[in-house]
Amino acid sequence: MEEKHLKYEEQYEEKYKAHWDKVYEDLSNELTDNFREEFLDMHPYDQSLFFIEQSKENRMRIYAYLSPDELAEIMINIELDNTPAYFKEMNPRLGAMVLSEMPADDAVDIFNEMDKEEVVSFLTIMDKEAAEEIKHLLHYEEKTAGSIMTTEFVAVYKSQTTEQAMQQLKEDAPDAETIYYLYVLDEDKRLVGVLSLRDLIVADEKTKLEEVMSEKIVAVSVAKDQEEIAQMFRDYDFLALPVVDFQNHLLGIITVDDILDVMEEEASEDFSKLAGISETDRPNDTALAAAKKRLPWLIILLFLGIFTASLIGQFEETLDQVAVLAIFIPLIAGMAGNTGTQALAVAVRGLSNGDYENQGKLRLVLREATTGLITGTVCGAVISVVIFFWKDDLFLGFIVGVSIMASLIVATLAGSLVPILMDRLKIDPAVASGPFITTINDIISILIYFGMATSFMSYLT
């Protein structure tokens, strides 16, 4: 069965490659009709992959062969970082027409990647209605519900019958982002209910919408943070979520495809911060751009490293008397850094997923402290035995073992408490980056290690 499945996959890949090659051949030979037929038969995502692999010469042909709405479908599926470069290649009027054909929220995302001068230029020559809609969304603060919502939805009034609503749905469907939900408004255009497409289809034609709509509506404020909205989609399995103002007027909707982009963006951002990078470091960045993003944290960590070195210098007399202590500095600092980073990852993930809200911060911190105690005790006992047989010094093993145990407990607590503290201060917990926690734990572990060694110097010498 497995061999049959693999054979099917190989046949599919060969067929897919042959189709791709045929599209490329038609494009290169300027066979417009053949190219359009083969290319438009591809999935929009595959179209975008084909597009970005082409030379500039071939892309210019694609701009000429496809209509603005067909080009808009390609641009929607391309990474946001790359889209401004393609719009610069296009004739400005064509670029404006493509942007006009895109859903307003997707066009806003692209504008956010462009220079202000480019944005103004495109808005000036765009379709007036589309430009006004985009300007309206551009006013909202970035990374809020307002910035990612679309205004292309189906809204009906509670006084309408299902027959009237169905007729309106047919008229609005071509331009709507989704038709699976119809949002029901009162006379003042306030959101009062929601109606699924299924409910609309099965209801009697003469029934008023207020009789079949659901009044249990989950909506979000236009200023709500996009990360919190992503959590709501995950928790409630929404396909779309209405966005309202403070008076409950319906302003737009957020769809699941937009939230998938948000999740990817937030994950990339958190990963960059955990790695000690000020902004997301992307593969297509120049070496200079990558260095600019990495340098801020590296400079901070450099000075923290100098402080760590000067701290070790304070115990120079202890090292002079018992030089063997220096051997175990990397061991203790490394163990503390590693366990602190593990606790940090758990804490940041817990805050991101809402686990702390569900279980309580204190409970999770106590769990991390207990974990640190267990891992510290085991690691401390193991290293004590190793040192005893290696250096034939029972008390040195005791000092190193207890230091590791204490360091791991403190490092685990620091890794879980620092993100919680930052969250309380309304700072992104991911800012407590791995390198930052590692350096702080280095300092703490060295203080514990040399503090104990100095206190028990007479036993060591």
TrEMBL record:
The chain crosses the membrane at residues 295-315, 321-348, 369-390, 396-422. The keyword Membrane applies. It comes from the Bacteria. It is a multi-pass membrane protein. Keywords: CBS domain, Cell membrane, Magnesium, Membrane, Metal-binding, Transmembrane, Transmembrane helix, Transport. GO terms for molecular function: magnesium ion transmembrane transporter activity; metal ion binding. Residues 149-211, 213-269 form the CBS domain. The keyword Cell cycle does not apply. CDD domains: CBS_pair_Mg_transporter. Coiled coil: none annotated. Gene3D superfamilies: CBS-domain, MgtE N-terminal domain-like, SLC41 divalent cation transporters, integral membrane domain. One of its GO terms (cellular component) is plasma membrane. It is found in: Cell membrane; Membrane. Belongs to the SLC41A transporter family. Acts as a magnesium transporter. Homodimer. This is Magnesium transporter MgtE. It comes from Oceanobacillus halophilus. The gene is mgtE.
